Amino acid sequence: MDEIILKPILTIESLIDEAKLFAEVESIYPEPKLYGVTDGKAVGTYVEHKFKAYLAAKCSFIAGSSASGIDLPELNVDIKVTSVVQPQSSCPFKSARQKIFGLGYSLLIFVYSKTDNAETRTSTLNILHTVFVEKTRTADYQTTTKLKQIIANNGNADDLVAFMRDRYLPVDDIQAYAIAEELLSGVPLAEGFLTISNALQWRLQYSRVIAEAGKVSGVVRVR
């Protein structure tokens, strides 16, 4: 009878370790499928699928579905892949609260530089940065830092709502005052490190997390 070998269950710690190893291997792998591809979304999909297949060969986990909305729902982690030329990606808009309190899940971000080789007709993705952002750090930097300043300066609900209006947060007055009262009640407000642009889909920009990775708690430099 063949021996059944059980794979270890994927954890945040092992995810970070495997992401580092994957990035090292992928950075030197000549991939013919990506030669001449300029669509960033196609490159991102390729890396995400390849990384999840890499994880599946080594660990036990349940992959995300369109219903769950994130790649690794058991760990509450979404995988993002972006070019170093303009490190950003989109994510579904759920609530303006995400800009203040965070997305509600963590991010594993791969930032690559793509090089095509005309002689071999292959492409190499040099993964320059791999960063893990804990969910508590996934709010908008400017929004959270300014709200914290207003509260520290004895600001009241009117001050907070005025700031939210100035920032064009997609909330009505009732929602804005509810958030203001929540903040004033002492609900912890962590400083976020994303730049989140208002849109039908949030536009997440990663320059700050790349720069701050390894320097602040909750933003881990994997590679």
Record the strand order, biggest sheet. Answer: 1-3-4-7
From the spread of the alpha carbons, the general shape counts as elongated
How many domains make up the coordinates? 2
How many helical stretches?
7
Q: Could you name the key traits of this structure?
A:
alpha+beta, single chain, ECO RV Endonuclease, Chain A, elongated, 223 residues, 3-stranded antiparallel beta sheet
Topology:
Elements: H1 12-26, H2 40-58, E1 77-83, E2 88-92, H3 97-101, E3 106-117, E4 122-133, H4 141-152, H5 157-166, H6 173-184, E5 195-197, E6 201-205, H7 207-212, E7 219-221
Parallel strand pairs: 1-3
Antiparallel strand pairs: 2-6, 3-4, 4-7, 5-6
Helix pairs in contact: 4-5, 5-6
How would you characterize the overall build of this protein?
- There is one protein chain.
- With 223 residues, the chain is α+β, with helices and mostly antiparallel strands.
- It has 2 domains: 12-94 and 105-138 and 193-221, 3-Layer(aba) Sandwich (ECO RV Endonuclease, Chain A), CATH 3.40.600; 141-191.
- The protein is built from 7 helices and 7 strands, in the order ααββαββαααββαβ.
- The protein has a 4-stranded mixed sheet with strand order 1-3-4-7. A 3-stranded antiparallel sheet has the order 2-6-5, with no helix packed on it.
- Helix 5 packs across helix 6.
- The longest helix has 19 residues, at 40-58.
- The protein is elongated, with a radius of gyration of 20 Å.
- The mean pLDDT is 92.
Task: Please give a quick description of this structure.
The protein has 223 residues and is α+β, with helices and mostly antiparallel strands.
